[in-house]
């Protein structure tokens, strides 16, 4: 990878993206969850959220990469005290810089003059983002967190095109209406591209006094939470203005790592919890979630080919919808129905209309899992090929053995 820019452009060619698809998919196949951090408004602390989200996940023992695609204003190197560092190559790929348990890549770690203006058009950005994936030795990761610039333009769109199986987006706003109105567009951007919205973070929500710790609502509070409710997407939590967060960012010290016991760090923990749960969902956890939904009957959807579970839900011939008594595990009714022609994002909505509570599949991509979650449908993957009644019986008895996600694309 070579990006030598002093304002005049990039040495990369923008014509090879389509030829690189196989190489990109090979890199991404080793990364379980790819999460983009978005905001329709600048200055809301998106890079702060992205950095501390990545560090918090790493602190939980997860293998995490942090990719900064804000080419015109890369903040990640400064927040991690990497301004003087440069990326190197092992001869076959670029080696990410490792700090605070993260593998980090940013344009700020490639250009020689930190004050140079990077003046690139869209095709150059697309090429650079492709190279950030295919030419970087990311290795095996549990999470890749992608920090993007404000808005819904070239960089976020290019990320969504290059990374075909994005797990979802974290959308950052501040409480004020002027920010919330812009951030609504980011949520709609995700909906239009079938990117699951993992949740909204309301940053700078109140001010924490450095002396007494009292929380004062300077800009008011609750704007992001209200917007999330109105747009029917998850709300991840509020993070207050804390002088220590600003100082940590300026000093290149990840806040959640160096100030882990503060109340603000605990707010970050709440934000991280649903993202962390993406990596721990299994049959037992799914069963508990179904029970919490209330009612005596749960509806389980099983994608089928020739009467047995299909390895990939999107390739099935029919769905078996089984109504099961939660208390006894008995199947009260079964209906086999033919799904509509498969289109991205269609089946989650269709099964939600059929009142499905849970889908058990052999394999399912991260993006599809997120879309099912948005519809309130719990997902279990890695189930064996068997008849629907046998799968449901084992699931209800707690003996369903799930293996690898058989088709994670």
Q: In whole angstroms, how far apart are the ends? A: 26 Å
> Mean of the pLDDT scores?
82
Proportion of helical residues: 25-40%
Q: What's the CATH class of the largest domain, please?
A: Alpha Beta
**Unreliable residue runs:** 4-17, 281-285
Rounded Rg: 22 Å
Number of helices: 14
Please report the total strand number as a whole number.
17
Give the biggest beta sheet. Answer: 9 strands, mixed
Going by CATH, the architecture of the largest domain would be: 3-Layer(aba) Sandwich
What name goes with the CATH superfamily of the largest domain? Answer: P-loop containing nucleotide triphosphate hydrolases
Number of domains: 2
Alpha-beta content class? alpha/beta
Write down the overall geometry: globular
Strand content: 15-25%
Briefly note the CATH topology name of the largest domain. Answer: Rossmann fold
Folded structure, characterized:
This protein has 409 residues and is α/β, with parallel strands linked by helices. The chain contains 14 helices and 17 strands. The strands form three sheets. Strands 1, 2, 5, 6, 7, 8, 9, 10 and 11 form a nine-stranded mixed sheet that branches. Strands 12, 13, 14, 15, 16 and 17 form a six-stranded mixed sheet that branches. It has a two-stranded antiparallel ribbon with strand order 3-4. β3 and β4 form a beta hairpin. The chain is globular and about 65 Å long. The two termini are 26 Å apart.
List keywords for this structure.
14 helices, Rossmann fold, 33% helix, 2 domains, 9-stranded mixed β-sheet, 6-stranded mixed β-sheet, alpha/beta, 409 residues, Nucleotidyltransferase, domain 5, 22% strand
